Amino acid sequence: MSKAKLTWPMRLNICKGIARGLVYLHDESHLRIIHRDIKASNILLDEDHNAKVSDFGLAKLSDDGNTHINTRIVGTMGYMAPEYAMGGHLTTKADVYSFGILTLEIVSGISCNKNISYKSETEQYLNLYDWVCLLHVKGTLLELVDPDLGSEYSPEEALTIIQVAFLCTKGHFCRPTMSQTLSVLEGQTNVQDLEKELLSSTTYPDKKHLMKQLWPDHSEIHPTHGEPLTESFVTESFVTESFIRESS
User: Fold this and answer.
1) What is the largest CA-CA distance in the chain?
2) For residue range 206-240, what is the model confidence (pLDDT) as tens digits?
């Protein structure tokens, strides 16, 4: 399947549209809704290339103070947040993770499940997320941008969108909300400021409590002393998967 010719402004607008849809589901609807299957084929574009979230195989969280639900695992491999894929622990941050992966696809034009040949001393094969991690370490994130765009894109915008997408794929406690993500995409918040805010405001679970859950007899085998440690819609539409390269 060939890719539709999407310009950089179109791609940026699509990412913003998906983010706005998720902000509505998570924060603005009567019930907090977690989509659970955000991926390219579940995003439709109208004739003006405005993104619409579709195909609601979803879970709902009422406003009763619940922070998460444990549920059977449904979704698509490659887009699923690790804590959800491995343990069924579902929060809105699962959609944030999926949004991050999808955004990386939109920027690069590469499917998250496609094997990428990486030439090194020994030839290796990486998936899209592994490649982004490698580029992040090397400080060359702009290599991710779809070469079909040539020079017809804003390096500043591209770097911002890649960085915020990368933040969305971090560990559960370190991910931004979709509202915070949209704020960066719309230019209201600097991505570096958001990263600092997340680092300073994130409250991690009590380590002693977690260890007792993982190893119930831990406190008896290894007695601890002192204080517990803590750390701080749609018209005639196109499926967005049409511009993602098919896996070979």
Assistant:
1) 65
2) 556 555 655 655 444 444 444 443 333 333 333 34
Identify residue 120 by its one-letter amino acid code: S
Residue type, 127: N
pLDDT per residue as tens digits for the range 37-80: 999 999 999 988 999 998 776 555 545 555 555 556 677 888 99
Domains present along the chain, CATH in parentheses? 8-204+234-243 (1.10.510.10)
**The pair of three-digit structure tokens given for residue 166, joined into one six-digit string:** 């990368």
Cα–Cα distance measured from residue 184 to residue 194, given in angstroms and rounded to the nearest whole number: 8
Over residues 162-220, the pLDDT tens digits come to: 999 999 999 888 999 999 999 999 999 999 999 999 988 765 655 565 556 556 554 44
Beta bridge pairs of residue 89? 70
Looking at 37, 46, 55, 193, which residue is catalytic?
Answer: 37
Distance between CA atoms of residues 117 and 112, nearest Å: 14
Q: How many whole angstroms separate alpha carbon 35 and alpha carbon 89?
A: 14
46 assigned to active site: no
- 3-state SS, residue 53: strand
